[in-house]
Amino acid sequence: MDTPLLELRGLHVATEETEILSGVDLVVNAGEIHAMMGPNGSGKTTLASTLLGHPDYRVTAGSILYKGEDITEWSTEARGKAGVFLAFQYPETISGVSVVQFLRQAMSARKGVDVSALEVRFAMLEWMDRLGMDPSFAERYLNEGFSGGEKKRNEVLQLALLEPEIAILDETDSGLDIDALRVVSRGINEVRKTNPAMAVLLITHYQRILDEISPDRVHVLIDGHIVESGGIEIVEKLEREGYEGWRP
Q1: pLDDT over 90 at 99, yes or no
Q2: Per-residue pLDDT tens for 168-199?
Q3: pTM above 0.70, yes or no
Q4: Rounded CA separation 98/115 (Å)
Q5: Cβ count within 10 A of residue 144
Q6: Which of 5, 32, 40, 71 yields a CA-CA distance of 20 to 30 A from 165?
Q7: In b/e form, how buried is each residue of 204-217, taking b as 16+ CB within 10 angstroms?
């Protein structure tokens, strides 16, 4: 059997004295799309942040395996270089650093070599055209003055250029209207066409993004652990009944 790209084994995570995740088991293979759904406070963002090694979240038990290697103690930088990507629910603004400068640094770190500004610009212009982005965004400071949709498209641009092996998308649909959601979803699907081995862990509240990005597996996270996994029928049940059917 092939080694999973990402495997969580009995993952327990706490912040300060409060346990948030209480034994999460998950297997994601290359090329798969997994949707993680759950109500507010269920631990979805904690899971995303923990997978990228955020220092505010402490793994108290269990492990995170990436391509068969235990990365539980790895730094955020090491995970990013190895191909783990996180798109934030609320992308940060970085004044004084342009989008092209940020992407040049990020691409150089990911590839392990110094990427030229010219190479970055060519790649950016190609993908900006495919994502329907104004080329002038390249010179703007990262996320400064960007609308919600522009921030999310910028995250998809990073996803395209960094070519990760697994993308963790933390509520990418948050705050988007229907048109912006479709643009962002088409962008993610376009990236997957050029990088079909990339796995996606899509964290969301709503069915609407799953109408645009079809998942292979759907998981329901409640009170810090996965209570059910299956196919798209889980999403249909959620639309009918909400999360109450899974609460103890």
Answers
A1: no
A2: 988 777 767 787 778 788 888 888 998 999 99
A3: yes
A4: 16
A5: 13
A6: 40
A7: bbeeebbeebebeb
Average pLDDT over residues 153-168: 86
Percentage of the chain with pLDDT > 70?
92
What's the fold here for domain 6-246?
A: Rossmann fold (3.40.50)
Number of alpha carbons in the 13 Å side-chain half-sphere of residue 112: 4
The domain ranges of the chain are: 6-246
* Nearest Cα residue to 188 out of 85, 80, 48: 85
Separation CA 97–CA 76 (nearest Å):
20
Task: Count CB atoms within 10 A of the CB of residue 2.
Answer: 7
* Over residues 74-86, mean pLDDT: 89
Tokens of 40: 């507010």
* Predicted confidence (pLDDT) per residue in 20-54, tens digit: 999 999 999 999 999 999 888 889 989 999 998 88
Per-residue three-class SS string for the chain: CCCCCEEEEEEEEEECCEEEEEEEEEEECCCCEEEEECCCCCCHHHHHHHHCCCCCCEEEEEEEEECCEECCCCCHHHHHHHCEEEECCCCCCEEEEEHHHHHHHHHHHHHCCCCCHHHHHHHHHHHHHHHCCCHHHHHCEECCCCCHHHHHHHHHHHHHHHCCCEEEEECCCCCCCHHHHHHHHHHHHHHHHHCCCCEEEEEECCCHHHHHCCCCEEEEEECCEEEEEECCHHHHHHHHHCCHHHCC
CA distances from 147 to 68, 137, 144, 204, 212 (A): 39, 12, 9, 20, 21
